[in-house]
Specification:
By secondary structure, the protein is mainly β. 13% of the residues are buried.
């Protein structure tokens, strides 16, 4: 579950992550996930998705919210290497686009 504020109105959507493949990064082997928004709970939604939606209070999902992106996470140490998400929400006055991006720069290990 996620949401975006459009002129003071929260527009809720489900963020779906799908395994696309793997990639070698400077932090090690990583899994690559594609990201997209769902504006409705699919009829054949898995139990985990239904549970996550219910846990969030079963909010009404907003029509007209779309997104695309990618998330890269190493699996040996679960390091979020990179995340890019572009969300578009259609409203009466046009389209609001929100782009967020984060990227790991360094890994520092400390001994106890």
């Amino acid at each position: 579950m996620d949401s975006v504020d459009v002129n003071g109105e929260e527009r809720a959507f489900l963020l779906e992550r799908t395994v696309q493949g793997t990639r070698l990064t400077t932090f090690g082997d990583a899994v690559v996930l594609t990201l997209r928004c769902l504006d409705a709970l699919p009829p054949n939604a898995p139990a985990e998705l239904k549970a996550a939606w219910a846990e969030a209070g079963s909010p009404e999902l907003s029509k007209g919210v779309t997104c695309e992106g990618e998330q890269v996470v190493t699996w040996a140490r679960f390091i979020p290497v990179r995340r890019l998400l572009k969300v578009k929400a259609v409203e009466a006055g046009g389209t609001l686009t929100l782009t967020t991006e984060s990227q790991a720069e360094a890994l520092q290990e400390e001994e106890p």
